[in-house]
Design goal:
Layout (H helix, E strand, L loop, with lengths): L26 E13 L2 E12 L3 E5 L4 E8 L2 E2 L3 E5 L2 E5 L9 E10 L2 H4 L4 E2 L2 E3 L2 E6 L17 E5 L4 E5 L7
Parallel strand pairs: 1-10, 1-11
Antiparallel strand pairs: 1-2, 2-8, 3-7, 3-9, 4-5, 4-8, 6-7, 12-13
């Protein structure tokens, strides 16, 4: 807009105020997909995370007593991993464009009951926007209930002789 003073000797007074400064998270996980296969007293999990990170490394904490099986960044094996705690590793991300998100994938196994294996891994300092978790149990077993803070994204459907729950989305859609 243009302002014109009626009096040529008039001065324009203004006041500027700063908006509050927002601290953005260092790490943002816009989408995550976990797939856990249960068998007996063991489980194996594959995790895929779409991560915006500016640093050269990430710290990942697995559920208690889980064992690392391997990690990948954009499909390439992570060659530098250092254990920084009993269930925590620091993954060095190598040379990459820091202005683009990465796809972090890793695999781990966990012993113990269902409760222990259904704790999600954590990327330290990350804000997670969406996480989908597929849990596959052996025939004759079922998962009852939904952990606190989670939504069950299944729907009920008729399967010729009985009602059963089916995934809301296919594995490809996730």
């Amino acid at each position: 807009p243009t302002y014109v003073a009626k009096d040529p000797k008039a001065t324009l007074a203004y006041e500027a105020t700063a908006d509050p400064i927002f601290v953005l998270p260092e790490v943002v996980v816009s989408r995550a997909y976990l797939r856990t296969l249960r068998g007996g007293d063991q489980s194996g999990t594959t995790a895929l995370f779409r991560v915006d990170v500016r640093d050269d490394a990430l710290e990942v904490t697995l559920p208690a007593n889980a064992e690392w099986l391997g990690a990948r960044v954009d499909g390439e094996p992570v060659l530098e991993m250092e254990k920084t705690g009993p269930d925590r590793v620091r993954l060095h991300l190598g040379n990459r464009d820091r202005n683009k998100p990465i796809i972090l994938g890793f695999d781990y196994s966990a012993a113990g009951g269902m409760k222990n294996s259904l704790q999600p891994p954590r990327i330290e300092g990350a804000v997670v926007q969406a996480l989908f978790w597929e849990v596959i149990v052996p025939n004759g077993q079922t998962v009852l209930g939904v952990p606190p803070g989670w939504n069950d994204e299944k729907r009920w459907g008729w399967d010729r002789v009985h009602w059963k729950r089916t995934p809301w989305r296919s594995e490809q859609e996730l």
